[in-house]
Amino acid sequence: MDNIDLTFITFIVIGIVLLVLTIVVISFFNTWLKALLARAPVGFATLLAMRLRGVPVGLVVDARITAMKAGLPITTDELEAHYLAEGNVAQTVQSLIAASKANIDLVWDRACAIDLATRGTAKSVLEAVRTSINPKIIDCVIEGRDTIDGVAKDAIQVKVRARVTVRSNLDRYVGSAQEETVIARVGESIVSTIGSSANYKVVLENPNSITESVLARGLDQGTAYEILSIDIADV
């Protein structure tokens, strides 16, 4: 009798295990097959572990497929860790692909750091990479005024409209000052340069002297950008 009961219990346990395995296979088969066909295989155990940890399986697998298709060997562990850190997995992968296509040296850890640093702001890691590829122009608007006002030594006020062309510096993007600091520094430097001019005519005749003086001061130090040029749009 005892042997019969033991055999019966064994069959029940085996049946439960097989049932669980069948459910797991059915639940993840499509995702597993999609990853396998895309040459970005993910095991059933990994898929189950992600589900148990509350990680969206489809998001991670799709991100890994996208990365592998672009020649970026990012692991599921790296993608999962970034998701659990409340990072934007899909956008971080897209930023790495964009950087790779543009021959910009950007590794996964740095991309994740930039993504987390820009979380909750108007910035993003993808925007940072795009600005590194295609520099953008910033209008120097300070305290709502579209002109930067300075007074030359002859006591005549000079109003200047300036534009700054910047490129993201990915190596120092995390923890560095943003656009506002660049605009403020450029504005202060232009005011200082105008103030050191003998008279307003000097500024009118050679506005490029302002940009040359300002660029020489290395105003992008400690910021997330590299200043490429400063253009005086109007005087």
Automatic annotation (TrEMBL):
InterPro entries cross-referenced by the UniProt entry: FloA
Keywords from the UniProt entry: Cell membrane, Membrane, Transmembrane, Transmembrane helix
The UniProt record lists the keyword Cell membrane: yes
Residues annotated as transmembrane: 6-29
Protein name: Uncharacterized protein
Species assigned in the record: marine metagenome
